[in-house]
Amino acid sequence: MKTWMTIIAVFFSQCVWANQLTIADTNNTKYVISDSQLLDMPQTSITTTLPWLEEEATFQGVTLQTLFKQSKLALPPSLTFVALNNYQVVIPRSDIETYSPIIAILKDGEPMSIRNKGPFWIIFPIATKPELNITDYHSKMIWQLKRIQM
Fold first, then answer.
1. Where is the signal peptide, in residue numbers (predicted)?
2. Beta strand ranges found along 12-108 (DSSP E)
3. Which of 24, 27, 112, 145 is in Cβ range 3.0-4.6 Å of 120 for a Cys bridge?
4. How many Å is the Cα radius of gyration of the chain?
């Protein structure tokens, strides 16, 4: 019985962890934000095609500017984004301010599972900004996002 309780606890702790995003500042102070907190922030939708999808999709989430404003954090010159598999990408503030990428929480109105590139995915507006449809910006659209390092 004790073994089963441990297995269940580990399973549910992974589910809870998967729906949290951590922001770490330059002093390594951590701010943990849940998917429900992100959904409570002002939302932006981006409808676009992506190289990894067979058809157009609508992504809903919060812009990085909104996230930092709501969290009372200053947007630094660049941010490092880290995925569940520890893939990392740096996005400069200039790209954030110019293109307003979102941290997508929903795809076509549904939460994204880890299997489907969730729970959080950085999305740039490729459909309205075709100049972003290049490898450099494709690499910045990190999925399975778990951490933002300032």
1. 1-18
2. 20-24, 30-34, 44-48, 57-63, 78-83, 88-92, 102-107
3. 145
4. 16
